[in-house]
């Protein structure tokens, strides 16, 4: 498994607290930003990095993408 930065760990932690652990429980970047108390742009960029590392899954939706944690980090 890839190493995660502090910001990546914060986003993953916020996602787990929100319960975004399965496709039917996905959350938006806005939800995650509010929970982590970080700017949405920073959270969105971090989510892209995490998706590239295979730690989260991005699901395109009509209005905004949803994200959930893959596996159990």
What does this 3D model show about the protein?
The protein has 73 residues and is mainly α. The mean pLDDT is 92. The longest helix has 13 residues, at 6-18. It has helices spanning 6-18, 29-36, 40-52; strands spanning 56-59, 66-69. The protein contains 3 helices and 2 strands; from the N terminus they run αααββ. It has a single domain, classed as Arc Repressor Mutant, subunit A (Orthogonal Bundle). The chain has a two-stranded antiparallel sheet.
Please outline the helices and strands:
Elements: H1 6-18, H2 29-36, H3 40-52, E1 56-59, E2 66-69
Antiparallel strand pairs: 1-2
Question: In brief, what are we looking at here?
Answer:
By secondary structure, the protein is mainly alpha-helical. Helix content is 47%, strand content 11%. A two-stranded antiparallel sheet has the order 1-2.
| Tally of separate helices | 3
Shape: globular
Low-confidence stretches: none
Mean pLDDT over all positions: 92
Kindly list the characteristics that best describe this protein:
73 residues; mainly alpha; Arc Repressor Mutant, subunit A; 2 strands; 47% helix; globular
